[in-house]
Amino acid sequence: MKNNYVFIMAGGIGSRFWPSSRQAKPKQFLDILGVGRTLIQMTFDRFTKVCPIDHIYIVTNIQYKDIVLEQLPELSEQQVLTEPSRNNTAPCICYAALKLKGMDPDANFVVAPSDHIVVKEDAFVEHINYGLSLVAHQDILLTLGIEPHNPNTGYGYIHYEKSASNDEKKVLSFKEKPDVETAKGFLESGEYLWNGGIFVWNVNSLLRAFSDYSPEILNILQKGASDFNTPNEQSFLNTYYPTTPDISIDYAIMEKADNIYTLPINVGWSDIGTWASLHDFMDKDDHSNAIGSLHSDQVDLVDTSGCMIRNQGKKLTVIHGLSDYIVVDEEDVLLIYPKSKEQAIKKLRNKVADNWGDDYQ
Amino acid sequence: MKNNYVFIMAGGIGSRFWPSSRQAKPKQFLDILGVGRTLIQMTFDRFTKVCPIDHIYIVTNIQYKDIVLEQLPELSEQQVLTEPSRNNTAPCICYAALKLKGMDPDANFVVAPSDHIVVKEDAFVEHINYGLSLVAHQDILLTLGIEPHNPNTGYGYIHYEKSASNDEKKVLSFKEKPDVETAKGFLESGEYLWNGGIFVWNVNSLLRAFSDYSPEILNILQKGASDFNTPNEQSFLNTYYPTTPDISIDYAIMEKADNIYTLPINVGWSDIGTWASLHDFMDKDDHSNAIGSLHSDQVDLVDTSGCMIRNQGKKLTVIHGLSDYIVVDEEDVLLIYPKSKEQAIKKLRNKVADNWGDDYQ
């Protein structure tokens, strides 16, 4: 356990959660479930069961450094890694690996998003620990695969060799978000998992993979190897990080390497990607309304069903005769939107920012 | 004109306009049309064409004295008459008459609500002035009658002697709010007007009517005749006013006296009694949405029709796919409510106050 680390990725902007999620304070920093902890706080809490707090790192945009330290006061400033630009996950993970290698040449680490939900935390932690023990002894790259329970078209899928007797299974291929017919086929075959974007690997295996499949990124960032974990780290990053290509880790490594394995898990996971997926996930009243707010006692619903409601502070929300809407009442925006059309919220967010200013973005 | 006065009644609480109208700041003190002036300010502006500003009085509950003086800085404190209790219109008008009699024994005066709207102000003023000239020379009590343009069941009706050749017509009877069939009959007959509650009378005629038909009220308040217009006025009122019976002027005088006349008017009047009547009255977009707010540029409506929307401040309101709802976004309450059910808003207000506290009342 002493070589185990966790890197929580917290640089996203959660645009499909507009108007609650904003560039200035994205989804991971919100108490979107109304439980008194933000998503990143819940993620942090979960990983404290995997390794000591001083082995947990947050990787985020420089813009969010203060908010991370505010929400996770247990962390020191050195545990918050800041990207000076948004270059997708491959450069970000490569930077994390190089830095970690400097600290602990035999490190095993988890890379996980900051804005996912896991209900069965103990089972999740068990899988993670098993994964860490695997990658410590074998040169494999592990990605967790979520056992699907519906033909979701919002996730990428992992095609895996189901027959293997071990818990870890060889990944045959990664599939982009499918259409609904394809997704139904995936579900029926039993050979597909949702790609949850949670990785477990050893630092040497991963850096070897970068060297083999994405040397461009590695070459740029390796120039700073001697600067990492010194006072020069940020200044190196500010200069070189923005010159790395904008590529996802899936595209840079996972889809190319041949030592990719997956651990199928069933832990009550959700990426809470949209208002409707939050609605699906949450406890609901007898009429299928979910209230994503600490102040659910400040909501009066009559003849109202299937709604996803988020209110702010102590404000009273009175809704009569409404079905299947998203109602989000933020300090500076009120959104009333049909749940069935929520895929357009990302576009709506851009339109609003264009017309009313970037503060709404 | 030198004997002409206007008393604007501003003690109501506008409960059907919840959650915008509250006991602490009722409808008449709100810019409900989104034009930059509150209803009482617009009413005041209208009557400055009838008489000098120092002949205009506001009669209101003591609770609203400060807000009246704030919204109508042209008035001196002496022009704001404050009832120490809510005893309906008869005691209130009797008090106004006694006070006025002390200032000007030959006064003619208008009594009008503070929360009505008149589009054709010049025509309205012309009728008012004609009414004032009538009551100055004849012992009649005049009530303005609104020519109805639909079988509204929200108003009382005035049955009048249509055949008379003068503009002023004898009132045959007053009718309570009718059901829709009765209202249709009223409309077809052409012999009925809406009772708008706007009165014109001479102070002596009115006090004579109180003496004849409602001596109980007159006897209580007359005890203070020597205190009115002295520093003792308020202390007299505080003691005696609450002991007057809770009776409307219609019931105390108008339905009993036999010298009641009406002036039929057609001046683009509305009592703006409910959200739906406000919606009817207001300018609307191509999809019949009305925005009762100064910040209509902060509203984004898509696939939305027939809605009455009121937002606050610079907050952005984004509504997609909603039809025929009232959406009112106040600082401490959000209301989303089917327009067709708005008659229940008064009850809803009570329920909310019961459950969440009197501040919501």
Short overview:
The structure is a homodimer of 361-residue chains. The first copy, chain A, has 361 residues and is of the alpha/beta class.
**End-to-end distance of chain A, in Å?**
41 Å
Overall spatial form of chain A: globular
Q: Let me know the number of strands of chain A.
A: 17
Q: Helix count of chain A? A: 11
**Major beta sheet summary of chain A:** 5 strands, mixed, barrel
Helix coverage percent of chain A: 25-40%
- In oligomeric terms, what are we looking at? homodimer
What structural category arises from helix and sheet content of chain A? alpha/beta
Average pLDDT value of chain A? 94
Q: DSSP strand (E) fraction of chain A? A: 15-25%
Sheet with the most strands: spatial strand order of chain A: 6-9-7-8-10
Order of helices and strands of chain A: EHEHEHEEHEEEHEHHHHEEHEEEEEEH
